[in-house]
Amino acid sequence: MELYSFLRQLADSWALLALTLFFVGMVGFVFRPGSRVAQKDAAESIFRHETRPATADEKESR
Question: How far apart are CA 40 and CA 48, in angstroms?
Fold first, then answer.
């Protein structure tokens, strides 16, 4: 079997399976229970100190 045919079969079968499992895993990771708080915190982090500057204690905790 020549190299091109082997790599083509590998990409058509196992690579497709691996990428599909990776995609399903990432979707599962994003929608796992308990991730809503972390995602909301990350989404709103740029607005955290919009009205007043951060205090020294807030800067040290991050």
Answer: 12
